Amino acid sequence: MHEIYLNGAFVAPQQAMISVMDRGFLFGDGVYEVIPAYAGRPLRAAEHLQRLENSLRGIGLQAPLSLPEWSEIFGRLLAAEPDRDQALYLQVTRGSAAHRDHRFPARPTPTVMAMAKLMPARDPAVAERGVAVVTREDIRWLRCDIKTTSLLAAVLLRQSAQEAGAEEAILVRDGLALEGSTSNLFLVQDGQLITPPKGPLLLAGITRDLVLELAGQAKIPIQERDIAVAELQGADEVWISSSTREVMPVTRLDDRPLGTGCPGPLWRRVDALYQTFKAELRRSAA
Q1: Catalytic site includes residue 147
Q2: Contact between residue 51 and residue 33 where contact means Cβ atoms under 8 Å apart
Q3: How many separate domains does the chain show?
Q4: Quick one: 133 and 208 in the same domain?
Q5: What pTM does this model have?
Q6: Distance CA 202, CA 196 (A)
Q7: 93 and 149 in contact (C-beta within 8 Å)?
């Protein structure tokens, strides 16, 4: 990491400091985004920034920067490693106040931060064998569509999965499988691609939407509907997706093989489409 954007300035990481009175530090009162960038080209930056604006609106904050202003920041952060794949992280909190108080400050000055870090290439062995997941009861709040920095519940759930030897926790509420602690969920049954519908109980993933777009262009049948947790073990295929994972096949569920125990044919087809999309994005940067 070469430098960080913080409140209008680019500074060295060791010089990037905020007040201990910042509400992001005290309350987790903020939102964030993660945007993958390939050869200096952010993937669907406008869509990510629209989601950021939606999250800001959800917590009663106005967008602090315009799309062109964000784009200028991204360009400088990515320029340090122009030929490498990177992940942009941006965060906006409600800023600092003179006193710790749950009530909003009358005139907040948001804290705005962005940074880029190298994004490791996907391990081919992991893609070939797939990953293990576990199901866990969803202990999060009721506005999971806001990409908030208040992530303790998700942290505990992801740690629970890691301690069980799994990559991810699939979250279950009222008998429905909603999403992972850090990912969206897909199920394949009889050649049809199924994913839970958007709503307040899950985050509308930008990668999720791209997967659906690519599948639709390939004439793969798609259904957005509730998924009963009982459907997972009998599914032909299960996938998870996120900005940094892309699309990952699940081959073990709650310590039992899922489907054939190997990545399925529809995942291989959609993953190939996704990799082609990435390659075209990289070429457009040349």
Answers
A1: yes
A2: yes
A3: 2
A4: yes
A5: 0.95
A6: 9
A7: yes
Looking only at the bridges linking them, the beta strands covering 192-195 and 222-224 are parallel
Alpha-carbon gap, residue 116 to 74, rounded angstroms: 8
Residue 236, domain CATH: 3.20.10.10
- SS3 at position 134: strand
What H or E segment, with its residue span, contains residue 11? Answer: strand 9-11
Residue 69, domain CATH: 3.30.470.10
Question: What residues contact residue 230 under an 8 Å CB cut-off, 6+ apart?
Answer: 175
Within this chain, do residues 13 and 60 fall inside the same structural domain, yes or no? yes
β-partners of residue 111 are: 93
pLDDT digit string (tens) for the chain, length 286 residues: 789 999 999 999 999 999 999 999 999 999 999 999 999 999 999 999 999 999 999 999 999 999 999 999 999 999 999 999 999 999 999 999 999 999 999 999 999 999 999 999 888 888 889 999 999 999 999 999 999 999 999 999 999 999 999 999 999 999 999 999 999 999 999 999 999 999 999 999 999 999 999 999 999 999 999 999 999 999 999 999 999 999 999 999 999 999 899 999 999 999 999 999 999 999 887 6
Question: How far, in Å, CA of 106 to CA of 191, rounded?
Answer: 54
CA distance 27 to 136: 25
Domain boundary among 118, 149, 173: 118
Shared domain check, 128 and 113: no
- Given the residues 147, 198, 219, 278, select the one marked as catalytic: 147
Q: Return the amino acid letter for 268.
A: R
Whole-angstrom distance, CA of residue 58 vs CA of residue 69: 22
